[in-house]
Description:
Layout: H1 4-21, H2 24-40, H3 42-49, H4 55-68, H5 73-84, H6 91-106, E1 109-115, H7 121-135, E2 139-145, E3 153-157, E4 160-163, H8 166-179
Parallel strand pairs: 1-2
Antiparallel strand pairs: 1-3, 3-4
Helix pairs in contact: 1-6, 2-3, 2-6, 4-5
Amino acid sequence: MIPSTILGRYATSLADIVLEENAVDKVTEDLKTYSAIFSAVPDLLETFHSPSVPKDTKRKLLDELLLQYPTTPIAANFLRVLLDHSRIRYFQPILDDFIKTVNERVGIVSAQVTAAAPLSQQEQNHIEHRLAGITGKPTNIEFQTDASLLGGIVVQIGSTVYDGSIRTQLADMKRRLAET
């Protein structure tokens, strides 16, 4: 496994470039498109990583993808650099680190909100407003669902977790009852 510091260099270098060129939104959108492509067709990353596939074939395949799903020159060059340095199989962790780095630099707080059921737009807006008030900064929130929570929500901001799920409340109640 490649150390995260090496992968972080790719993310940091890309962040430097997109911030300098004022192309954060477009490049991020382009790379998220490729993230979806790689998720939908996992064999694609394996082909790019395989030592049995010649480098020229890999480059042609990537060029074909870039023709079908055009990107900014920055995103296209970034994909080519990852391919040429045999790092494209680590695309997703590099992308995650890139987004985190950009958000930190522009002062956006990333949060993850997990609920037992999908939240309405009004509930999402309320949570976004509350988190922006708590952090004092704009927030970038990823909403997820997890039926095992039974109810309530779990909010993660950085390494801090606020667990207001019914599952946790029931587990705490069970633990307290067992202690008596």
